[in-house]
Description:
Blueprint: H1 14-34, E1 39-43, E2 46-50, E3 56-61
Antiparallel strand pairs: 1-2, 2-3
Amino acid sequence: xxxxxxxxxxxxxxxxxxxxxxxxxxxxxxxxxxxxxxxxxxxxxxxxxxxxxxxxxxxxxxxxxxxxxxxxxxxxx
Length: 77
């Protein structure tokens, strides 16, 4: 199903949207791998980029540990 107007946008099934996102993501990853731009990975001590040949380069240093949120309420205003 294709969307012809913004009014039809909400009529798309969620499973089809997820399939389209995965397809586009596969295309993006294929181009990134072909250009050897490397894939980005966040670890607790920094951000790393891994290239096709296995080389890993640290892009940013910092404390990237996961943080737990005690309250899940969000105040918008």
